[in-house]
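thread: overnight batch results

M.L. [08:02]
morning all. the overnight job finished for the chain we discussed friday. pasting input first so we're all looking at the same thing
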Amino acid sequence: MASTAFDGHPDPGRFGDFGDAVRRWRDRVSPESAGLTVVGQRRAAGLRREELALLAGISADYVTRLEQGRATRPSDQVVEALARALRLSGQERAHLFRLEGLAPPGPDTVPGTLAPSVHRLLERLAGTPVAVFDAAWTLLLANPLYTALMGDGPEDPDGPGHRRNGVWWTFLGPPRRVRQSDAERRATEAALVADLRATAGRYPADPRLRDLVAELRADSGRFAGLWDSGAVGRHEGTRKTIDHPQAGPVTLDCDILTVAGDDLRVMVYTAESGSPDADRLALLSGTVLPALLTPSAP
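M.L. [08:03]
and the structure it wrote out:
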């Protein structure tokens, strides 16, 4: 295997190693183990590029370009997302980072790895919208039904910024599908900032977290005011109405489970059995989700 640079820049001429590794590991992950429903005939047992892209939160075209060596220097956020979607072990994850000349995240950073038990939880809840966030509210992994419900964020796979972060989206991102009154939005903002401050207290040396807070304070007066108030707390679940373009308004209970040892947040959306909202979720699972997993034309 070609040598790897550790100055933040991959060695030229070895870009194919990263794509080869992603492709090999994609082939060994079955769609069933990732919580996906197999649709139609498959030529291989592993994940399709569209499926890996959906799980990692990037575009299928970008996965293709990475595997073919036509996209180089992916950000550490993209490498981390691929490692989680591919269910890599700790050593494999570190190897994938080093193939791109990136240093694997250290022990002083907000944890971003998912234990096998968390992956199994997502498998068991394949019929329920579920997403996993780190302690700074950066989206780590979402099952396909969550993506079908909430929609994709803007595709910025190898650019700077914090576009996978829920706090960034709340204060600086475009409107999402969740319907909120002014009072509900202000309560959500206050709870998220208090939660983020508690996380910053636990991981004061995390550079990405410091950058996130600095950007939010500079670009959002509302965030800056809440941050400077010094409040510390935890963001709890609530009941939400999601205005879906195909299914219509869906009102769901949003519960947030904590994986204490790994400092993760598992967000689970559920509807009362037999309710119209449960029927709308079933509609998403039966119509919108298969469209997301349909292979794109060459």
